[in-house]
Design a protein that fits this description.
Blueprint (H helix, E strand, L loop, with lengths): L1 H10 L1 H12 L11 H13 L4 E6 L13 E8 L2 E11 L17 E3 L2 E3 L3 H21 L4 E9 L10 H6 L10 E4 L7 E6 L1 E10 L14 H21 L16 E9 L16 E10 L5 H18 L5 E9 L2 E2 L5 H14 L4 E5 L5 H6 L6 E3 L14 E3 H20 L6
Parallel strand pairs: 3-6, 3-7, 7-15, 8-14
Antiparallel strand pairs: 1-2, 2-6, 4-5, 5-16, 8-13, 9-11, 9-12, 10-11
Length: 426
């Protein structure tokens, strides 16, 4: 069956390229969430032609949804001849803005030198197309398969996934007994299996002051200077402590094996909305947004307590210092076990296709596995797909056609193993 599946995927090479180009031509830019509906409808029609029952699911009560920018997801399900397990391939259809620096039209799906160029080719419309072709191939060669195959195209992954996989998970679409195994074809290289991701805590720190005339700052209290003290404490105490912590999670790249924190933004004093000269005021408010990433060895409560302890120390030691700390988003780290069925099936497929064992990695940032684990309580989930992660969100983003074909082959092998129960396709 190995050779038959491999040949059948190769025969669909042109279909795989065409589907990738078709998907890229929908400019599903998030924010604000453009072209979600026509892209989801296109995927639904494509799946219906090969025997899937499809649903278009609108996340009307989620952030970002408006009548102008509706959050439209698509889910297709193809039942086998008899009952059995369900394998679900999930790909997000949203992409980030194109930005500057492109040498080709970012939404044309240009094919050149064995690559498809365009925004979202790598992250992750090429992976979604590969999953569709893998499923088509498996069904053609094994029409009497047991169980079911699901394929979904979901929205807003780039902004948290709450109107996409998060919404579908709340509906029970990523839980047993409906679904048993999930593969998310994110671009993590064709011979690597991503077991999960680090945790994240986004928060806002606000320092308080007192407004006064800028010519007499001694009559006020600068919230920006207070924030400067926070920055200094971070530099002197927090950042060195985080850099010294190492995780046993196989996070890539190597720098992400340490705990990290990024300062996303600082806003204080005069806004950028004026067109003339600024007024001479002492700023009475300054806000900082932080992005703290942490491995499975750290507890979220301890992550938060560390920041609060630093701020409380400043409140004790620095005259007039006061602050507010507000949660923005929190996601726990997750890592699927090496012996989980989906890991074993994809690993066997990689060995069969490439003649070597896969590398096992963990993502430095989060992706939609967080909702499947947290809400769906389904832990037989990985990310596996074609593409080089470093190309994501870059100008001239591309995906290799050979890589897509080989990844689709691995996915077809994994489908065979998971649905038929074969440890290796015979």
């Amino acid at each position: 069956m190995h050779d038959a599946l491999r040949r059948a995927v190769e025969e669909r090479r042109d279909d795989l390229v065409a589907l990738t180009r078709d998907l890229v031509r929908f400019p599903t830019v998030n924010p604000p969430g453009e072209a979600y509906a026509p892209c989801a409808e296109f995927i639904a029609e494509r799946l219906q032609r090969t025997g899937y029952r499809t649903q278009l699911i609108v996340a009307e009560d989620k952030p970002g949804h408006t009548s102008r920018y509706p959050r439209v997801n698509v889910v297709g399900r193809r039942e086998g001849r008899v009952a059995g397990k369900t394998v679900h391939f999930n790909g997000h259809i949203d992409v980030v803005e194109a930005g500057h620096g492109w040498s080709v039209d970012p939404f044309a799906g240009v094919v050149r030198d064995g690559r498809v160029y365009g925004r979202g080719t790598c992250d992750m419309k090429g992976g979604l197309a590969a999953a569709v072709i893998a499923a088509d191939t498996f069904v053609a060669l094994c029409p009497d398969y047991p169980g079911a195959i699901e394929i979904s195209g979901t929205v807003d992954e780039e902004s948290g996934g709450y109107a996409g996989v998060g919404h579908l998970a709340e509906m029970g679409l990523f839980s047993k007994p409906r679904v048993d195994h999930v593969i998310i074809p994110e671009p993590l290289n064709k011979d690597r299996i991503c077991l999960g991701h680090r945790g994240v805590w986004w928060a806002q720190i606000e320092t308080h002051g007192r407004i006064a005339h800028g010519s007499m700052p001694f009559l006020g209290d600068s919230a920006i200077r207070h924030m400067g003290a926070v920055m200094q404490a971070f530099e002197n105490d927090l950042f060195p402590a985080l850099a010294a912590r190492r995780t046993d999670m196989p996070v890539v790249p190597e720098g992400a094996r340490a705990s990290t924190m990024n300062i996303n933004a600082i806003h204080g004093g005069q806004t950028d909305e004026y067109t003339g000269l600024p007024s001479p005021n002492v700023p009475d408010r300054c806000a900082m947004t932080i992005d703290r990433r942490f491995p499975i060895e750290e507890e979220l409560a301890d992550v938060k307590a560390e920041i609060r302890a630093l701020l409380d120390r400043l409140k004790r030691d620095r005259p007039k210092f006061d602050y507010a700390l507000t949660d923005v988003m929190e996601v726990l780290p997750t890592m699927t076990a090496h012996d989980a069925p989906v890991v074993q099936a994809v690993a066997a497929g990689i060995r069969a296709e490439f003649g070597r064992a896969p590398d096992y990695v963990v993502s430095p940032g989060t992706y939609d596995q967080k909702h499947i684990a947290r809400i769906g309580h389904l832990h037989d989930c990985i990310a596996y797909g074609p593409g080089i992660l470093d190309l994501a969100h870059q100008p001239d983003e591309w995906i290799g056609i050979d890589d897509m074909v080989q990844s689709a082959t691995v996915m077809a092998f994994a489908l065979h193993a998971l649905l038929t129960g074969a440890t290796e396709p015979a």
